[in-house]
Amino acid sequence: MKFKLIAEYFDRLEKISSRIQLTSLLSDLFKNTEREVIDKVVYLIQGRLWPDFTGMPEIGMGEKFLIKAIAMAYGNKEEEVEKLYKNIGDLGEVAYSLRSKVKGVSILSFVGGNQEAGELDVMEVYNELVKIATSTGEGSRDIKIRIFAGLIKKATPIEAKYLVRFVEGRLRLGIGDATVLDALAITFGGSADYRPIVERAYNLRADLGDIARVIATEGIEKLKNISPTPGIPIRPMLAERLPDPEEIMEKMNGKALVDYKYDGERAQIHRKGDKVTIFSRRMENITDQYIDVTEYVKQFVKGDNFIVEGEIVPVDPESGEMRPFQELMHRRRKNNIAEAIKEYPVNLFLFDLMFFEGEDYTTKPLPERRAKLEEILASNDKVHIASHIIADRVDKLREYFYQAISEGAEGVMVKSIGPDSIYQAGSRGWLWIKLKRDYQSEMADTVDLVVVGAFYGKGKRGGKFSSLLMAAYNPEKDVFETVCKVASGFSDQELDEMQKKINELKREQKHPRVVSDMIPDVWVSPTLVAEVIGAEITISPLHTCCRGEKGGLSIRFPRFIRWRDDKSPEDATTNQEIMEMYSKQLKKIEEKPVDENI
Ligand SMILES: Nc1ncnc2c1ncn2[C@@H]1O[C@H](COP(=O)(O)OP(=O)(O)OP(=O)(O)O)[C@@H](O)[C@H]1O
User: What is the per-residue pLDDT for 591?
Assistant: First the structure.
């Protein structure tokens, strides 16, 4: 399959303005894709070479290298390329422009050998990109530059443009997983009605390329039988939230398992033979940060082929007490991880089992999963089952909640133990409900919102971005709906970081997956997630989240708390959750005694 075809689709995808068109064009691309390479094409359109969970390096070639490679490929001086870059501001366009100018020479002689421009094959491109990503050690910089220069030398202008953006890590077509799943269902199932089958398979085996390969080469029927596979992450099950224990017990039909809600890092742990791999909440491979945990798991969890889930929590080695989750940050260091492991010891608190020795446990009710988990865990002081009780009265739940908090937990997770209490991979539902200690403020909880636009500041901050247009995620439509403009809570350092982040992601037009009536100074590709707290949720004509007759919902007095790099935009707070928070808040106001309202 020719790479040229893909580059042309990239160009068309970038210009599209609606989500529906995006899906249909993507489906068109899949129809024209040779089935053997569809997995690679899926990775490429998402700007990567492989799924994050592989832990394999992505390219991320810096500007300087690219300038060198472009100059080398097209016979320009580096200063010329730099100058052009200053004028245009996009190295992809620079490559496009310089490649277009190489006209005097016939394409054949320019390209060299007997390969014509436009003849690049997808696998050839992919393999060369893999070489660039994986070459390390002395001299590797020069090798990378040479390989890339060779590649764009053979490319057409449009191929060169997208290759440059790809290796720079700026191919931001903003095609989320949901759009790919829709397009796969339409292309290979025949209609969007097949989406649930494709989605279920993806939830259990979160490798989009692999799912595309199975459906394209073996058909939709094959997807129905997919089960979790150690080594490939499962999309995590998520909890709903409620601030009131009474309501929670009602939702649970009067009886539930109540776990401590530990404040650490979620870990999905896979064992396949001798190999133990740990995936984060975002399904990134974090094994290297927790080599100690992999050893504990090998030692204390019986079996050779399983997937379990738990929370990694820093502990005081002397007292065994829980420590603040910030201590885990030290484990992110690239160097001296061994020291961080020694200095900041952790324990693992397991709360679920999804797969054991060939058997899919995700379809079994929670009591069965937990019983097996207890059975396979040997007694030890590093890996524990999450502290829990079975509560059948509201006061029991309340009491346990306070106990959890007093021991340093963040609250409790209340979990259904009914016959339908399966592990709902990849979805947020009422089978798990979180009750957290910070449900005291007016707006019950913080929200995680996606940056979709930015505004320049005035006065002291003139010329710099100082506020952000934020959106919630609407999973049904797979779009981002605006809910507030955040201008406070940033430290000076965070403001500086913000300039960099926005400059990398800004775009001229609104992204097709963004629904907004407000027009910011610059639009931003929906990629960054920030945690935000506000005073309350109100109806507003300005915002598009949950828009009804009276307007949309908006967060008043929003304040930035921190970036949530561990979340992808599709993990942001949903429109549905904002609606639920709003209804809760209304109910609270109605329930207040009259005199308090005066
Ligand atoms: N016993 C437990 N059962 C399930 N999850 C737990 C448990 N203890 C701690 N957790 C953690 O709680 C998280 C969910 O709650 P929280 O809202 O604090 O996190 P979040 O990442 O902001 O939200 P979410 O994961 O629901 O999107 C889980 O992702 C998991 O890491």
Answer: 53
The answer, yes or no, to whether any atom of ligand 1 lies below 6 A from the CB of 1, is: no
The domain that contains 480 carries what CATH number? 2.40.50.140
Q: Which atom of ligand 1 is nearest to the CA of 448?
A: 22
Question: Is 178 inside a domain boundary?
Answer: no
Count of the separate structural domains present in the chain: 3
User: Does some domain include residue 298?
Assistant: yes
Same domain assignment for residues 296 and 430: yes
Please tell me if the CB atom of residue 312 comes closer than 6 angstroms to any atom of ligand 1. Answer: no
Domain that holds residue 52: 47-167
Does residue 312 belong to any structural domain of this protein?
A: yes
Q: Is 261 in the pocket of ligand 1 (CB under 6 A)?
A: yes
CA 251 – CA 431 distance, rounded (Å): 9
- Tell me the three-class secondary structure of 211-243, residue by residue: HHHHHHHHCHHHHHCCCCECCECCCCCEEEECC
Does the beta carbon of 572 sit less than 6 angstroms from any atom of ligand 1? no
Pocket test for ligand 1, best of 234, 240, 259, 266 (most atoms within 8 A of CB): 266
pTM above 0.90, yes or no: no
351 in contact with ligand 1, CB cutoff 6 A: yes
Q: Are residues 503 and 429 in the same domain?
A: no
- Total residue length of the chain: 598
- pLDDT exceeds 80 at position 165: yes
Q: Are residues 347 and 410 in the same domain?
A: yes
Residues 408 and 466 in one domain: no
Closest protein CA for atom 29 of ligand 1 = 266
Token pair for 241: 């939230």
- Whole-number Å distance between alpha carbons of 203 and 425: 5
Whether residue 462 sits in one domain with residue 347:
no
What is the Å distance from ligand 1's center to 331 Cα?
A: 20
Q: Is 246 annotated as a binding residue?
A: no
Mean pLDDT value of segment 334-347: 88
Do 466 and 566 reside in the same domain of the chain? Answer: yes
The percentage of the chain sitting over the pLDDT mark of 70, rounded to a whole number, equals 93
Q: Tell me how far apart the alpha carbons of residues 211 and 198 are, in angstroms, rounded to a whole number.
A: 8
Residue having the nearest C-alpha atom to atom 2 of ligand 1: 261
Distances (CA, A) of 422 to 384, 413, 429, 481: 22, 16, 11, 31
